[in-house]
């Protein structure tokens, strides 16, 4: 490791530590282990281990592109930036400031997310900003804030997980999405702890479980209510904890008691003995954790579903003490930090609310503007995308690929295509960048320094290991250059550490307080947990031990009711489709589809069918079949497996075009988090011809 630069993986929220050694050839660095970083202790999955391949000039953009006569053609940086500035300013002049939109990404560093939010509010003066993290864990964030007063993915370090007595993992498959995390589940079992996995599919993660519950997609809320009903009926509630540290229990208890276990069995398809066994394991353990991922969160009732699982934790006294509690396995690399620093439609840095006068005054003072000059809250991600070509006429998009990753993706591609002006900054020519008027090639993880906040709330430092190729600039340089052209050059430094120093001041006093965190400190401590209000504060690996972050210090129960998915199966569309990821691809695949080793391991989309269903449909392994929904049609090979429910089919969502699972996904939105219902919609499967 001595000659290797210590940094972190470009992909998921585990933010595994890795080293980068200089190398000869088109790929300028070699990824090596970094055993000292505590989260992954040297382990990397195939995505992280092969990440350097995207640094090669042949795999990525190295020149700005400008659309001329309908074609994207190489252009100089001044030409490209002038065109963007003219496109954004012209639109604002013609239609008003809110006609200019900004769309960010959960993979951007904290510094970029902060600068992008500031750019939108201060330079463009628009309320129309949101980011793709809205599609990731926003329901968990909303549920966490509702119950605990603050949202931090995990309120404890991952190292606490093996010390729990029982862990319920709901709708997550870390064995494929973040394999180094699995060691914590294995250690849990080695320590005598129990693992319950809730997933409609018997995934690689479910294979590890002591108990696998396979509910119908979209019924996790009912499952949690059924468990709570049994907890109450069996007298297994923690009355002392409920009395001393919570509010809202009577209404929540009554709501759970209205959901009879027999009814829950009928709704979820989970046999009642399994439900009872889950309660026995969870309540029989000295401490319990519930971890959710996208399964329960990406629903039109995602926030209530998260609340139902939190209620189970609170009723059993499993919160606010060591080795117990609720947490969310955040997905994107900076899904956590990306939602703390102001690129979300309703937020200012420090996890402050944009409609809070005190928050506006604090941040406006740091930015040197009048509080009333800041726009108000804007639309959520899907609503912003849906308004393209209508109320929003021009868009600046950074580090996101909604043509593949947004729900009802055909519709979103049409909306993007109807814009007067689209500018995209990205590392590669993604499917969304292909639609742009201007594409800017920007630096990536190994070529720049910046901080990320992992799923534990640990702020880590990515370090520059190699110079970018000629023709590539950083997103911070892009924002500075655009701010100059749009008449506000001050306040947009291009050095990441300078941006971070301002972020510290802007976040000071907020829920996500970074004031005591600095680059030297992160480097010395291998990450610092927020909140960390002072330089001599130790950081906060475990939240809520003394009090919850609510005004009265108590956690809040929320009474919730089961309701069906927004789109239930019927005679035309008799099956449920659920979506997810595979081991060798990441999110929209914009980067990982350019890595040969990963493409060999996962070359394309497929649809998983239970053999019983396949026989009924006359489908054999490998047959090309059409999946048809109200929103689109896809054609992929069939993969037969008994690991999925016979009433459910599964598609991974990493591929574009006729293989794109998000052609089907339903943009019905959660009323609180505005999360679309990615995880449950109605489809039919038929012969491709
Ligand atoms: Fe990268 Fe996530 Fe794999 Fe770790 S688990 S190497 S962070 S993709």
Automatic annotation (TrEMBL):
Q: Which Gene3D superfamilies match?
A: 2.40.40.20, 3.40.50.740, ADC-like domains, Dimethylsulfoxide Reductase, domain 2
Question: Does the record carry Ribosomal protein as a key word?
Answer: no
Report the Pfam families cross-referenced here.
Molybdop_Fe4S4, Molybdopterin, Molydop_binding
- Alphabetic keyword roster: 4Fe-4S, Iron, Iron-sulfur, Metal-binding
Fetch the InterPro entries from UniProt. Answer: Asp_de-COase-like_dom_sf, MoPterin_dinucl-bd_dom, Mopterin_OxRdtase, Mopterin_OxRdtase_4Fe-4S_dom, Prok_molybdopt-oxidoreductase
List each copy of the 4Fe-4S Mo/W bis-MGD-type domain by range: 2-56
Provide the protein name.
Molybdopterin oxidoreductase family protein
Organism equals Kitasatospora cinereorecta
């Amino acid at each position: 490791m001595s000659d290797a630069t210590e940094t972190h993986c470009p992909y998921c929220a585990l933010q595994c530590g890795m080293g980068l050694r200089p190398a000869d050839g088109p790929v300028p660095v070699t990824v090596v282990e970094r055993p000292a970083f505590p989260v992954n202790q040297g382990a990397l999955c195939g995505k992280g281990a092969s990440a350097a391949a995207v640094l090669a000039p042949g795999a990525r953009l190295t020149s700005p592109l400008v659309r001329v006569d309908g074609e994207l053609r190489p252009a100089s940086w001044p030409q490209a930036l002038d065109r963007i500035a003219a496109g954004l300013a012209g639109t604002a002049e013609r239609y008003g400031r809110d006609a200019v939109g900004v769309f960010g990404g959960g993979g951007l560093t904290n510094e970029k997310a902060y600068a992008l939010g500031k750019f939108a509010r201060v330079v463009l003066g628009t309320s129309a900003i949101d980011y793709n993290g809205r599609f990731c864990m926003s329901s968990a964030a909303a549920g966490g804030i509702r119950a605990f007063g603050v949202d931090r993915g995990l309120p404890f370090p991952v190292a606490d997980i093996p010390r729990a007595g029982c862990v319920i993992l709901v709708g997550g498959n870390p064995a494929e999405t973040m394999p180094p995390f699995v060691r914590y589940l294995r250690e849990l079992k080695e320590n005598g702890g129990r693992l319950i996995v809730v997933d409609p599919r018997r995934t690689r993660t479910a294979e590890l479980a002591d108990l696998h519950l396979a509910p119908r997609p979209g019924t996790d809320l009912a499952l949690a209510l059924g468990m709570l009903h049994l907890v109450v009926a069996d007298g297994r509630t923690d009355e002392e904890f409920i009395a001393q540290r919570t509010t809202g229990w009577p209404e929540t208890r009554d709501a759970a008691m209205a959901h009879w276990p027999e009814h829950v069995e009928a709704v979820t398809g989970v046999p009642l003995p399994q439900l009872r066994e889950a309660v026995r394991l969870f309540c029989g353990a000295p401490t319990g954790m519930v971890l959710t991922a996208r399964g329960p969160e990406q629903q039109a009732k995602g926030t209530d579903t998260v609340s139902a699982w939190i209620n189970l934790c609170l009723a059993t006294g499993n919160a606010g003490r060591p080795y117990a509690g609720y947490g969310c396995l955040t997905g994107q690399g900076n899904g956590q930090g990306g939602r703390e620093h102001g690129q979300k439609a309703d937020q200012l840095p420090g996890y402050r609310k944009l409609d809070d006068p005190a928050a506006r005054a604090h941040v406006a003072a740091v930015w040197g503007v009048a509080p009333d000059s800041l726009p108000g809250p804007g639309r959520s991600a899907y609503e912003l995308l849906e308004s393209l070509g209508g109320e929003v006429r021009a868009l600046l998009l950074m580090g996101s690929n909604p043509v593949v990753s947004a729900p009802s993706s055909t519709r979103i591609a049409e909306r993007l295509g109807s814009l007067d002006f689209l500018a995209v900054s990205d590392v590669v020519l993604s499917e969304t960048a292909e639609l742009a008027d201007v594409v800017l090639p920007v630096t990536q993880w190994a070529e720049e320094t910046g901080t990320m906040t992992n799923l534990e709330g640990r702020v880590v430092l990515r370090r520059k290991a190699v110079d970018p190729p000629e023709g590539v600039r950083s997103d911070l340089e892009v924002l500075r250059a655009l701010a100059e052209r749009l008449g506000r050059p001050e306040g947009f430094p291009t050095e990441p550490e300078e941006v971070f120093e301002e972020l510290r001041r802007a976040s000071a006093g907020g829920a996500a307080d970074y004031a005591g965190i600095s680059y030297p400190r992160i480097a010395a401590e291998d990450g610092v947990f927020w909140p960390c209000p002072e330089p001599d504060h130790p950081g906060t690996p475990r939240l809520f031990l003394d009090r919850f972050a609510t005004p009265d210090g108590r956690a809040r129960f929320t009474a919730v009711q089961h309701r069906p998915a927004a789109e239930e199966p019927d005679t035309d569309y008799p099956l449920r489709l659920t979506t997810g990821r595979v081991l060798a691809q990441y999110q929209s695949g914009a980067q990982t589809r350019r890595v040969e080793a990963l493409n060999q391991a996962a070359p394309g989309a497929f649809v998983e069918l239970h053999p019983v269903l396949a026989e009924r449909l006359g489908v054999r392994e490998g047959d090309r079949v059409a999946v048809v929904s109200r929103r689109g049609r896809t054609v992929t090979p069939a993969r037969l497996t008994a690991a999925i429910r016979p009433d459910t089919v599964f598609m991974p969502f990493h591929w574009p075009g006729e293989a794109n699972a998000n052609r089907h996904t339903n943009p019905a939105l959660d009323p609180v988090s505005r999360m679309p219902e990615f995880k449950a919609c109605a489809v039919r499967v038929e012969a491709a011809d």
